[in-house]
Design a protein that fits this description.
The protein is α+β, with helices and mostly antiparallel strands and 192 residues long. It has a domain of 125 residues: Aminopeptidase. It has a 7-stranded mixed beta sheet. A two-stranded antiparallel sheet has the order 2-3.
């Protein structure tokens, strides 16, 4: 699925010092525009009040606990060393910790070229915490982070049963007839 939409880059306040002329003293012209704060379905403060902490780095992320969430949602168990390598090559990460247990309960990450394209991977929410908005909280923030970087071509892979989750977040299947392809090594049949 790809995300389509209008991207607005953050605008900053700029101060320009006008050169003095013989008719007037030096002046400072301030040009400013405020970027509206992203509107999330659940605010960071509301998440915290419910006992959830947001994290944007791998610091404090227990990979064995994350692996347990992967398995709980039907992903295969992964080698923790390979998870660590994947995370080292990840451009953006967002995960939610249930403070009471200090365990990850929601997770998503994105890789890409840092300029034009990104792919979102491993979007998971512990089944015990599904339905309370954690998946949407993670995705809204991850997409916003990518857009703030100027990345507008954002893709993800999804199982058909959860496509409906991504559509309200701006993702569409096969936009403009574009279809994704995946390399597949098929094993040759042995001759008997």
């Amino acid at each position: 699925m790809l995300r389509h939409g209008i991207v607005s880059a953050p605008l900053r306040t700029t101060h320009l010092r006008l050169a003095p002329t013989h008719l007037r003293p030096p002046q400072t012209l301030t040009i400013s525009a405020q970027l509206s704060t992203p509107s999330y379905t659940i605010s960071d403060n509301e998440l915290l009040s419910r006992g959830f902490a947001l994290h944007r780095t791998t610091e404090g992320l227990n990979l064995d606990h994350l692996n347990s969430v992967f398995v709980a949602v039907g992903f295969p168990r992964r080698d923790p060393h390979k998870i660590r390598v994947a995370l080292e090559h990840t451009d953006s990460i967002l995960w939610v910790e249930y403070v009471k247990t200090q365990r990850p309960v929601a997770f998503a990450r994105a890789t890409g070229d840092g300029v034009f394209n990104a792919i979102i991977w491993d979007v998971v929410v512990d089944p015990n915490f599904q339905g309370v908005g954690l998946g949407k909280a993670v995705m809204e923030r991850l997409v916003e982070e990518l857009l703030q970087k100027g990345i507008t071509n954002i893709a993800l892979y999804s199982e058909p049963r959860v496509l409906g989750f991504y559509r309200p977040l701006g993702f569409v299947s096969d936009p403009d007839g574009i279809l994704g392809m995946v390399y597949s090594r098929k094993q040759k049949k042995k001759k008997s």
